[in-house]
Structures are given as structure tokens and as C-alpha cells.
């Protein structure tokens, strides 16, 4: 039996599954401070997630596929079968063409790279919450094929043409041709305008990418979930000082770290 989506104006129930304790605790704290969400639970493994969904019936599941998207597909298929209206948001570190195809067949709503950071994930979840609470389905404009929707979605997520070609088993030339057709159908003349138009039509969920020269190093930790000094609803951001060089963002003179509003977080990196 399919799950009924969130009633108009009600809180969106979120279940979080991640083997990374610090990440799931931090995400749960961030969402708990938002007026749109209620976190029904955050668990470490698939059996616990199934039990949580059976018990609480979430509207949205955040699945951290740190072990690989392919390994997550059987569980995601089970969730989609049991709850046909549930929103599935999958965070990944690596994505192969087979993973992309399998996710599409299972019915994953959104794939987001973990490299985009916590800010991008929170913005994405807010967009899903707005749709769930309004009771309005995401439109699919006439004339845009499934392949074209995949390409504009991957483009909006920041993937270059070569990576899109690899994920969709196409040549870069074919991807470029497809993008030109998308521009014509959306009545735009550039990639940035096409992305903006796709967002307006509800085709993609877009979050800002990290600015050049101010990227989060792969080894930097998420902010500590035990730092309770920030007010509810605080958004964490990875920031660099103005002295950071674009050509060498890891220069010894740069000051980098998670920040909470204007106050530096405890997790610092110099």
C-alpha cells in the first residue's frame, strides 16, 4: 500500500539512514531546528531503516550510500514498493552508469554528490518539503524527453559533459547535441539560462556549488553535532578567509573551517 504524502501545511517527516554517526547526528540536529521538518529517526543500517519506515511512515528518506549506490538499490526498491509516494534522496561519493540506470529504474527522486556539502543537501530537502507540503506534483513539460531531463538534471548538479556522457553511455558529442535541443525546447540560449528555466519548471532541484578557491578538503570533518551553541535552524557552511588563493586553496596562509552564521565553528583547519 502506498504512503500518503504530507498533508498541506503539515510537517514533513524525515528518516535518515547513514553509517556515519557524526553525519547523521549533524543532519538530524539541523533538520530538527527547521519549522518544515520533523525527524522521525536516524539509523545506521538498512534493517533499522525498514523498521523505522514501517513504524513511522516518513514522507522523505535521506539515504547515505557511502558504500556505493549499487549496494543500496535492493533496499531502495523495497522502500519504493512499500511506499510508492515516499521521496528518496540518495547521497553518493561515486556514481557509475549502472548506478545511474539502476537508480532511475528503482525510482530514486534525487541523487546528490556528498561533495556538494551540507548546505546543498539542506536546500534540496527544503525544495522537496515545499512540494510535499503544497501537495503539488513536480511537472514534466511536454516535449522534453526522459534523456533530455536526465541531461539537464546532471548539468544542474554540476557534472561536466564528459561525466554526463560516461554516466548515460553516450558520446560527449551526443550530449552536446542533446543540450542544444534542450536549449531550443526551453527557449534559452545558454546553459545557465537552461538551468534557471528547468528550476522554474520544477525539473531539477538546484543547490549552489562551492565557489572556486573555497572548496572543502576531502578530509575535513563535518561540524560537531555536540556544538549546541548555535540557535535552532543554523546552517553550517565551509568557508575560507579572503586570503585564500584561488590557485592554491590549501595554502598554509589560508584559514578554513566550518562556520555557523558569522561565528567560526569548533572544527577548524589551518
Could you give a short description of this structure?
By secondary structure, the chain is of the alpha/beta class. About 40% of the residues lie in helices and about 15% in strands.
Describe this structure in words.
Residues 137-202 form the HTH luxR-type domain. The protein is an alpha/beta fold. 40% of the residues lie in helices and 17% in strands. The chain is built from nine helices and eight strands. It has helices spanning 21-32, 46-56, 69-82, 97-106, 117-134, 146-156, 161-167, 172-186, 191-201, and strands at 12-17, 37-43, 60-65, 87-92, 110-113, 236-240, 256-260, 263-269. A five-stranded parallel sheet has the order 2-1-3-4-5, with helices on both faces. A three-stranded antiparallel sheet has the order 6-7-8. Strand 4, helix 4 (97-106) and strand 5 (110-113) form a beta-alpha-beta unit. Helix 6 packs across helix 8 (172-186), helix 6 crosses helix 9 (191-201) and helix 7 (161-167) crosses helix 8. The model is unreliable at 1-5, 137-142, 206-222, 224-229, 240-256 and 262-270 (pLDDT under 50).
Distance between the termini: 52 Å
Overall average residue pLDDT: 74
SSE arrangement, N to C = EHEHEHEHEHHHHHEEE
User: How many β-strands, per DSSP?
Assistant: 8
Residue share in β-strands: 15-25%
What structural class do you assign from the helix and strand content?
A: alpha/beta
CATH architecture name of the largest domain: 3-Layer(aba) Sandwich
- Largest β-sheet summary: 5 strands, parallel
CATH top level class name of the largest domain: Alpha Beta
Give start-end ranges of low-pLDDT stretches: 1-5, 137-142, 206-222, 224-229, 240-256, 262-270
Radius of gyration: 19 Å
What is the count of structural domains? 3
The residue fraction in helices comes out at 40-55%
Amino acid at each position: 500500500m502506498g504512503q500518503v504524502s504530507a498533508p498541506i501545511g503539515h510537517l514533513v517527516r524525515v528518516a535518515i539512514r547513514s553509517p556515519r554517526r557524526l553525519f547523521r547526528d549533524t543532519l538530524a540536529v539541523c533538520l530538527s531546528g527547521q519549522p518544515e521538518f520533523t525527524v522521525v529517526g536516524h539509523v545506521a543500517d538498512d534493517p533499522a531503516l525498514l523498521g523505522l519506515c514501517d513504524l513511522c511512515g516518513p514522507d522523505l528518506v535521506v539515504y547515505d550510500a557511502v558504500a556505493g549506490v549499487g549496494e543500496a538499490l535492493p533496499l531502495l526498491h523495497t522502500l519504493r514498493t512499500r511506499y510508492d509516494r515516499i521521496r528518496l534522496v540518495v547521497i553518493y561519493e561515486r556514481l557509475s552508469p549502472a548506478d545511474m540506470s539502476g537508480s532511475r529504474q528503482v525510482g530514486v527522486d534525487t541523487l546528490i554528490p556528498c561533495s556538494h556539502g551540507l548546505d546543498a543537501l539542506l536546500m534540496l530537502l527544503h525544495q522537496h518539503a515545499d512540494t510535499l507540503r503544497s501537495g503539488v506534483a513536480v511537472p514534466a513539460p511536454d516535449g522534453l524527453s526522459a534523456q533530455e531531463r536526465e541531461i539537464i538534471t546532471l548539468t544542474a548538479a554540476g557534472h561536466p559533459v564528459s561525466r554526463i556522457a560516461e554516466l548515460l553511455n553516450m558520446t560527449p558529442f551526443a550530449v552536446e547535441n542533446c543540450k542544444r535541443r534542450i536549449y531550443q525546447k526551453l527557449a534559452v540560449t545558454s546553459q545557465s539560462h537552461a538551468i534557471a528555466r528547468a528550476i522554474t519548471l520544477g525539473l531539477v532541484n538546484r543547490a549552489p556549488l562551492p565557489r572556486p578557491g573555497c572548496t572543502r578538503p576531502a578530509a575535513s570533518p563535518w561540524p560537531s553535532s555536540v556544538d549546541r551553541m548555535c540557535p535552532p535552524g543554523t546552517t553550517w557552511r565551509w568557508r575560507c578567509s579572503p586570503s585564500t588563493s584561488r590557485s592554491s586553496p590549501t595554502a598554509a596562509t589560508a584559514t578554513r573551517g566550518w562556520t555557523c552564521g558569522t561565528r567560526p565553528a569548533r572544527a577548524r583547519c589551518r
